Amino acid sequence: MSIRLSLPIALPTEAAFRAASRQVTPTSETMATHTLSRHRIWFVHSVIALIVVGYSFDILTDTEHWPFSSYPMFSRVPREATLRVDRLFGVTRESPPRELPLVANEYLHPFDDHRLHERLEMYTGPSTWSPILSVGFARIPAASNKGDQLRRALLNCLERYDAGLQARRHDGPPLQGIRLYSLEWQIDPWAANRDQPSRTLLLELMRPSKE
Amino acid sequence: MSTLGAKWNRFWFEPTRPLALDICRIVFFGTVFLYFLGRDFSAWADVFPAFWKPIWLFHRLPLPVFSKGTLKTLELLWRLALLLSAVGFLTRVSSVIAFVLGAYLLLMPANFGYHYREELITIITSGILAASRCGASLSVDSWIKRAREGRSSTVVAPSGEYTWPIRAVCLALSFVFFGAGVAKLRHSGLEWITSDTLAIFLVQSNYMSAGHRLTSWGLNVAQHKWLCHLLAAVTIGWEVCFPLTLFSRTARWVLLPISLSMLAGIRLLMGAPFELLALCYVFWMPWESLVSWSRR
């Protein structure tokens, strides 16, 4: 392929592409041809420029402008010997009631454990488990009414659990209430204490008993 | 400089047949359709409004969370557009719809908390395919065109139109991995390799809910410090060097298998859902050669 260039990075002419095409497949059967017009080439270069500028900006400035990103997950060396996460537990209507960790995606739909956990941090503060560095563009809303907001957020989680049960998206037990715990582990190399975290109750939301 | 310009043009616009791009289109849109088949986006309409913290795109435009009914309609249209794009029917229109609706639906949950960045490449790739002529040969569109013109078969002339989209997806994927490598070096430096970072991440992932985690093998790997250091070095190495695959055949032969194996390893050991990133490797496949080889 021989393309004559007059600019430092010149765009190929239509004729050059047609010539190149003929060189590659000299066939009389050829029906469809998609030659690149000058406008089309500029358009393609715009797409390429958008990709290069979008990613380069985020990587250079360590920011995220989705769908571009600097992909900062798991980039920090963890310094803590403990691991703390906030987790929702449902309180069943059985007697005696038992606590059910609400980690299955069906229970939290449309959230999953990671996403809900990260969003609850808006009210409870950051945990030590954070595979990411930044979570978006906007800042966390003013903290003055955090307690009330958290209560309403948990109520919303409970209502969505009930809606999922009614819609048969999951087969979990009916719930009397919901509790938000802060769980903390001393990290064990074999995660042997995975099921025995120390727990601190942050908030409880119980429905009035029907008795 | 003219040599540089010629190389640039050859890289992006070297005439190729449409076969590879068409196969990539079929595999990509078909897999995305199947991958998101069970996901219900309309449920976000019922989520507590205070959880809404808009990302920059939704903040700037500004885009709302639509009502449940509207979201269901958009979801249905998106799935239809993905399917039509995969089979290549009304390819230009359907791929543009797949891109626009996909960008909205896939980014919308990010306004409610942690976002799986692995899904972002899906939006970029959809956008590139929407801007391309990716339905030129293996598509219902071309079949209809042939039928109208009374031809049983046709040969589509090679063109740069079928080259640049593939290269653009490879470029985007290179930025993804390069960015991840740079982030590790920026925030932790070589300590990311020399400390117990990877071992700690492997153990920590076993404390989190099962969610995406497939195995607990990460605990076994974490016990071998030398192995974790080696894997950490390999991780940063292939991430930072990945852009070389754009220009070097040798780099492709070395880095593509390593990176794909590492993605599979991270998926198995830590649970990070990297399927959509792995899907983009179809754009690296030498489809022309594979098809020729299979016809022998």
Quote the distance from N terminus to C terminus of chain B.
Answer: 42 Å
State the helicity of chain A in percent bands. 25-40%
The separation of the N and C termini of chain A measures 86 Å
> What form of chain A results from the Cα inertia axes?
elongated
Structure summary, number of beta strands of chain B: 1
Low-confidence stretches of chain B: none
**Tally of individual helices of chain A:** 5
Query: Strand portion of chain B, in percent?
Result: under 5%
User: Residue share in helices of chain B?
Assistant: 55-70%
Largest sheet of chain A: 4 strands, antiparallel
**Assembly type of the shown chains?**
heterodimer
Helix-strand pattern of chain B: HHHHHHHEHHHHHHHH
Gyration radius of chain B, rounded: 21 Å
Order of helices and strands of chain A: HEHEEHHHEE
**Which structural class should the secondary elements of chain A be placed in?**
alpha+beta
Describe it for me?
The complex is a heterodimer of chains A (211) and B (296). Chain A is 34% helix and 18% strand. Chain A has 5 helices and 5 strands. Chain A has helices at 14-24, 38-61, 105-108, 113-124, 146-166, and strands spanning 30-32, 82-92, 99-101, 175-186, 198-206. Chain A starts with 13 loop residues before the first helix and ends in a 5-residue tail after the last strand. Chain B has helices at residues 2-13, 19-35, 56-60, 68-87, 91-107, 120-130, 140-148, 164-188, 191-194, 197-204, 217-222, 225-241, 249-270, 275-279, 287-295; one strand at 155-156. The longest helix of chain B has 25 residues, at 164-188. Chain B is globular, with a radius of gyration of 21 Å. Chain B has 15 helices and 1 strand; from the N terminus they run H-H-H-H-H-H-H-E-H-H-H-H-H-H-H-H. Chain B is mostly helical and 296 residues long. The chains are: A alpha+beta (211), B mainly alpha (296). Chains A and B meet through helix 1, strand 1, helix 2, strand 2 and helix 4 of A and helix 1, helix 3, helix 6, helix 7 and strand 1 of B.
